[in-house]
Amino acid sequence: MASVTIRILDVEATIEHYEWTAPAKLKGLLDTYLDVDRRSPSDPFPELTVATEVVTKIGGEIVSITPPTYPDDEKEYIY
Prior knowledge:
Blueprint: E1 3-8, E2 11-16, E3 19-21, H1 24-31, H2 46-58, E4 61-66
Antiparallel strand pairs: 1-2, 1-4, 2-3
C-alpha cells in the first residue's frame, strides 16, 4: 500500500489511501490539504503530492515513503 509519513514538530502523521492518520488536532489541519476535486486522476502517487505540499507550506519533513506497487508489466495475461 502506498503511504507517506511526515513529522511536524515531533508529531508523526501518515497518509494512506488519501486519508490522514494523526492526532486529532493535527489531523484536522492536514485534512484541509485534501481536495478530492483537485486530485488529478493521472497522479500516480497522490499521497506523496499532498505530503510534499504540507511540509513545504507548514514545515516538517517526510520521514518515510512506501511507493505504490504496480502489476508486473511482463506478466502474461489471459484474456
